[in-house]
Amino acid sequence: MARVELNEVAHSYLPKPKQPSDYALKRIHNVWEDGTACALLGPSGCGKTTLLNIVSGLLVPSRGRVLYDGKDVTASPPEKRNIAQVFQFPVLYDTMSVFNNLAFPLRNRGMGETQVKERVLEIAEILDLTPFLQKRAAGLAADAKQKISLGRGLVRSDVAAILFDEPLTVIDPQMKWHLRRKLKEIHEQLRLTFIYVTHDQVEALTFADQVAVMFEGEIVQIGSPQDLFENPEHRFVGYFIGSPGMNFLECTVEGTVAQVDGTSIVLNEETAAKASKAKGKLEVGIRPMYLEVHAESADNRVEAKVRMVEDLGSYKIVTLKLAGNTLKASLPEDQPVPEGRAWLAFPLQWTRLFDDGWLIK
Ligand code: ADP
Ligand code: MG
Question: What span, in angstroms and rounded, lies between the C-alpha atoms of 162 and 84?
Answer without folding.
Answer: 5
